[in-house]
Amino acid sequence: METKGSYGEGASIRPECLSARKDWVEPNADEVRAALKMADWSGEELSRRIGVDSRTVRRWTLGEKSINYASWCVLCVQAGLGHIWMFAPLYARISPK
Distance between CA atoms of 90 and 25, rounded to whole angstroms? Predict the structure, then answer.
């Protein structure tokens, strides 16, 4: 299952990027850009909201640096993806035991 974003062709966010920290996989640059689009935020807006330099956000969106978990959580909430720090990984929620 993929969460579709509207940022460019085929932008999606992998389910493993929407998990609690211990199971979290860092999103790639395309996923960060997709979440920004879903949040209707510019990189500048995200940088203002979380108190980081806009160059840092630019590095996240270019894939030069990985976004940290706390910043990703803020972006996910604004994008309507939920409070991911409370989620078990998707595969754990749908796999039979």
Answer: 12
Residue whose pair of structure tokens reads 């969106």 in the numeric block: 61
What SS3 string covers the chain? CCEECCCCCCCEECHHHCCCHHHCCCCCHHHHHHHHHHHCCCHHHHHHHHCCCHHHHHHHHHCCCCCCHHHHHHHHHHCCCCCHHHCCCHHHHHCCC
In this structure, how many other beta carbons lie within 10 angstroms of the beta carbon of residue 70?
A: 11
Compute the distance between CA of residue 60 and CA of residue 40 in angstroms, rounded to an integer.
Answer: 17
d(CA 37, CA 91): 26
Can you give the pLDDT at residue 5? Answer: 42
Nearest Cα residue to 44 out of 55, 34, 54: 54
Residue 68 has pLDDT above 80, yes or no: yes
Amino acid identity of residue 59, one-letter, is R
What's the pTM value of the predicted model, to 2 decimals? 0.80
